Amino acid sequence: MSANDIAIPGDTGATLVVDLDAIAENYELLLKTCPHARVGASVKADAYGLGLAPVARTLSKAGCRSFFVATPGEGLALRDVLPTAEIIILNGPERGQTDLFVRGALTPALNSLQQIESWQLENPDDRAPAYLHLDTGMNRLGLAVDDVDILVSEPRRLKGISISMVMSHLACADTPQHLMNQAQIVAFTEMRTRIETVTGPLKASLANSPGIFLGPEYHYDLVRPGAALYGLAPNLDRPNPMKQTVEIYAKILQLRNVDTPMTVGYGAAQYVKKRARIATVAAGYGDGYPRAAASKTGGGMHTYIAGYKAPLYGRVSMDLITLDVSDVPEEFTVPGQPVELLGPHISPDDLGASAGTIGYEILTRFGSRLHRVYRDGGA
Ligand SMILES: *Cc1c(COP(=O)(O)O)cnc(C)c1O
After folding, report:
1. Nearest-atom index, ligand 1, CA of 225
2. Which residue puts its alpha carbon closest to atom 13 of ligand 1?
3. Nearest to 170 by CA among 231, 130, 220, 243
4. Which of 224, 230, 240, 349 has most ligand 1 atoms within 8 Å of its beta carbon, as the pocket-test mutant?
5. Which of 85, 111, 156, 374 is the residue whose CA sits 20 to 30 A from 332?
6. How far from chain centre, in Å, is Cα 331?
7. How far is CA 65 from CA 61, 148, 260, in A?
8. Is the CB of 92 inside a 6 Å radius of any atom of ligand 1?
9. Averaged pLDDT, 39-65
10. Which atom of ligand 1 is nearest the CA belonging to 133?
């Protein structure tokens, strides 16, 4: 895809292109990487900002059967899209909310003794499956070792609960040499073995995207990638095996020649150092472009125009950025020209790094103002 194929409609400033074919290819690569496990998909937060419905349909077509979201509301929205898929609600059921789960045939992750109790009391169907989440080191969600002791000594607490999976979550999977990874496997095995004295053998799930690339020992029965499906690097220190799935192009609105002594943008933060040509472009932090991508004094990150590098010049505004286009041929610096903010030259991981954050946050911040285009060669 090149910037010249990109339509930025007249009623908008910037276009977000989501490559659904690339998402399907990424899913297939993960299938090959996990020959002995099922590959689910994390589609929480509107499929990491890419759009729940089109992404979930694409993954379902690629063979995915298990979908993870955070809240029951997300689960009900997904149920409208995928009538028969398994939908797991990671945050679990709050007391009095079980009817939402029943209505959407949603599978809760049970994260605490209290959630287990609510589910036991309120869920009308003893065969409705639930995941049991064991905390092996995140200290975020899931049953602690003490909770497992209580369940084992008081097995009636699990009566009428149909556990279809035990799961846990890795804290440091993006750092393969981190000792925490192996320690979490050991803790997971211990806790799971104790629970199984009550329940009998259970299926297990541990790996997120980076966890998949730690090796088959981490795959168990089901893996739960999100980021890798959307093209983020599972490990920032290694070449990224995933295909990039998103591009953003914003249009040039206006050109201006500046010279010393002048400044550009808010705070008069960017001093003009030499005569320069400045392009004002129609996207800003209101569209999800991180304000921190410009350093305190002005620039920092860059963009590409027809393959030519154009650095940020001055602060990022809500609706606009300003670029130094002095080194871009004038034929490409005209109003309406698309500017690559993310694309073949700039990954979400790159943009995240420039702003002191991660690609995950870049993706999930995409604003509702962006015009969205879905590429789906198969459809
Ligand atoms: C978000 C999430 C995932 C997916 O993580 P990625 O790093 O995006 O692959 C998997 N499991 C749990 C419990 C999660 O919260």
Report:
1. 9
2. 169
3. 220
4. 224
5. 374
6. 37
7. 9, 29, 61
8. no
9. 98
10. 13
- For residue 331, how many other CB atoms are within 10 A of its CB? 8
Helix (H/G/I), strand (E/B), else coil: 136: coil
Taking the domains of the chain in order of start, what are their residue ranges? 21-230, 246-375
193 C-alpha to ligand 1 centroid (Å): 24
**Distance between CA 366 and CA 301 in Å, rounded?**
18
Catalytic residue among 203, 243, 266, 309: 266
Superfamily of domain 246-375: Lyase, Ornithine Decarboxylase; Chain A, domain 1 (2.40.37.10)
Q: Which tokens is 335 given?
A: 């109003």
Rounded to whole angstroms, the Cα distance separating 177 from 214 reads: 9
Report pLDDT for 173: 96
Candidate from 66, 68, 219, 220 with most ligand 1 atoms within 8 A of CB, to mutate = 68
Ligand 1 pocket check for 33: Cβ under 6 Å: no
- Indicate the burial class of 229 (C-beta count within 10 angstroms; 0-12, 13-18, 19 or more): buried
Sole residue written with tokens 């790159």: 350
Superfamily of domain 21-230: Alanine racemase (3.20.20.10)
What number of residues does the chain have?
379
What is the distance in A from the centroid of ligand 1 to the CA of 224?
6
Distance 322 CA to ligand 1 centre (A): 35
Q: What angle do CA 40, 209, 131 make, to 5 degrees?
A: 45
For the stretch 75-121, pLDDT in tens is 999 999 999 999 999 999 999 999 999 999 999 999 999 999 999 99
